[in-house]
From TrEMBL:
GO BP of this protein: DNA integration; DNA recombination
Family annotation (SUPFAM superfamilies): DNA breaking-rejoining enzymes
Pfam families listed in its UniProt record: Phage_integrase
Domain Tyr recombinase as annotated: residue spans: 10-217
Gene3D superfamilies: Intergrase catalytic core (1.10.443.10)
Keyword Oxidoreductase among record annotations: no
Name of this protein: Tyr recombinase domain-containing protein
Originating species: Photinus pyralis
InterPro entries reported in the protein's UniProt record: DNA_brk_join_enz (IPR011010), Integrase-like_cat_sf (IPR013762), Integrase_catalytic (IPR002104)
Length: 224
């Protein structure tokens, strides 16, 4: 296997990514009274973006592990995940409130989802996400992936190119562009601060190929 990996080393899936603002802009157009499927798609997509987490991790959120503290929701992931190991800490998701735009507030959306599923949730269903269709079984990672794919497609993002996991590329690259430290990005996404994973696989430029032209054109706005 080592010989094969030397001949065919792992390569990044994407050479560019999409701007999270495209998804945020679409979410702002949605009505307040979403049905359960729409609400499921929205909350999972927002969680994937603002945590930089894997959908596997998000699918393992349990109601019993959610704590609300002041303006933040804290979620401990206690089930085994891809990076679980003897010396690796389990992730904790920190969800801040976003009062500036309530329609994009993940904490508010998460609480709305919990309220919407209260009456259909069985007593032994501790995992937070349920199928939007009867009999409302516990939703697996594949279901969450489908929800995110549907949301990305609705937002005009090419899902023939970008898979649901691309939320991780999009959010971490955007965070770096906006000046978030590499330490914070790696800690939030679950990488070692010294790992080469982010630089090799996730730090991607935008899909907009007109950046060069736009930079030149905007010079005219600053002329005397």
């Amino acid at each position: 296997m080592k010989g094969i990996s030397r001949l065919r080393p792992a390569q990044p899936r994407y050479t560019y990514t999409w701007d999270p603002q495209r998804l945020f802009s679409y979410l702002e157009t949605l009505p307040d009274n979403l049905n359960l499927l729409q609400l499921s798609q929205k909350v999972v997509s927002l969680l994937a973006l603002i945590t930089g987490g894997r959908l596997q991790t998000i699918s393992l959120i349990r109601l019993s592990n959610i704590r609300e503290e002041m303006d933040t929701i804290q979620i401990n992931i206690t089930d085994p995940i891809k990076t679980s190991g003897v010396n690796n800490e389990q992730p904790t998701l920190h969800i801040p409130s976003f009062k500036e735009k309530p329609c994009l507030c993940v904490a508010t959306t998460l609480k709305a989802y919990i309220a919407a599923t209260k009456d259909i949730r069985k007593k032994d269903q501790d995992f937070i996400f349920l199928s939007a269709k009867k009999p409302h079984a516990t939703a697996k990672k594949q279901t969450l992936s489908r929800w995110v794919k549907q949301m990305l497609s609705s937002a005009g993002i090419d899902t023939s190119v970008f898979k649901p996991h691309s939320t991780r590329h999009s959010s971490t690259s955007a965070a770096l562009r906006r000046g978030v430290s590499l330490e914070t990005i790696c800690r939030t996404a679950g990488w070692s601060e010294h790992t080469a994973t982010f630089a090799k696989f996730y730090n991607r430029r935008l899909t907009d190929r007109t950046d060069f032209a736009k930079a030149l054109l905007t010079m005219s706005l600053n002329k005397d």
